Structures are given as C-alpha cells and as structure tokens.
Amino acid sequence: MHELSIAMNIVEVASEEAEKRGVTVAAVHLKLGMLSGVVKDALLSGYEMASCDTPLAGSKLVIEEAPVVVFCSKCDAEKTLASMQWFCCPECGTPTAEVRRGREIEVTALEVR
After folding, report:
1. Neighbouring C-beta atoms of residue 75, cutoff 10 Å
2. For the chain, what is the domain count?
3. Spatial distance between the Cα atoms of 60 and 25, rounded to a whole number of angstroms
4. pTM of the full predicted structure?
5. DSSP string, 57-97
6. CA–CA separation, 97 vs 70, rounded Å?
7. Tell me: the pLDDT tens digits for 52-100?
8. 101: containing domain
9. Is the CB of residue 9 less than 8 Å from the CB of residue 15?
10. CA 41 to CA 63: how far, in whole Å?
C-alpha cells in the first residue's frame, strides 16, 4: 500500500512546517488528481496511522479531488474530461493524450489552531 508511504511523507512535511512556524496543525489540505494513482480512502486511512504519535496526531486530512484537464488541439483550449474512460474533448470529441492537470498530489494548506 503505497498510500501509507505517501501519508508518512505528508505528515513529515506538515510537521516540519508546523515546527518551523510554532503552530499546531488541525488539518492538512491536499489536492489529489484523479490520475495520481492514489486511492483516496487508503490515503485517509494511511494518514490516520502515520500521524499517530506525531505532532499531527488528531489532525484531519482534507482531500480535494482534482479533475483531469487535457489540451484539445482542435479547440486550442484546455478542457476538463467528462469521463476517465474517454480521453476525448468533451466539446468536439477529438481524442487527446495531452494531460495538463490531474496527476498532482499537492499539499495546498495547513489549518492551524
């Protein structure tokens, strides 16, 4: 379960930042792309385990799922995919493999007390 190692990394980074600023973390906000290869529920469970006995114990992991955004050469624009199984422009139907967003695993904010 690679989600546990990702959760441990998140806890480590957030703990370092909290210590540097002298704050207590109530929640870690994360943007998780639909193509990241990470299972949201497994990451939430892994975070709970990883944060145990750390300065982040009792904090929450708040996950915002980020959609897949591709570039359509025909429309000359970025488009949000309507379906993960259909990598085509949702407006003109042109197939595309140029993914612009949707792979990210990014800590976007720390909620502090």
Report:
1. 14
2. 1
3. 9
4. 0.86
5. TT-EEEEEEEPPEEEETTTTEEEE-S-TT--B-TTT--B--
6. 7
7. 999 999 999 999 999 999 999 999 999 999 888 889 999 999 999 999 9
8. 2-112
9. no
10. 10
Tokens 């973390």 belong to which residue? 25
d(CA 3, CA 47): 8
Q: What is the CATH number of the domain that holds 99?
A: 3.30.2320.80
Average of per-residue pLDDT across 40-53? 96
Return d(Cα 67, Cα 46) in angstroms, integer. 22
Q: How far apart are CA 103 and CA 80, in angstroms?
A: 13
pLDDT confidence bin for 1, thresholds 50/70/90 = low
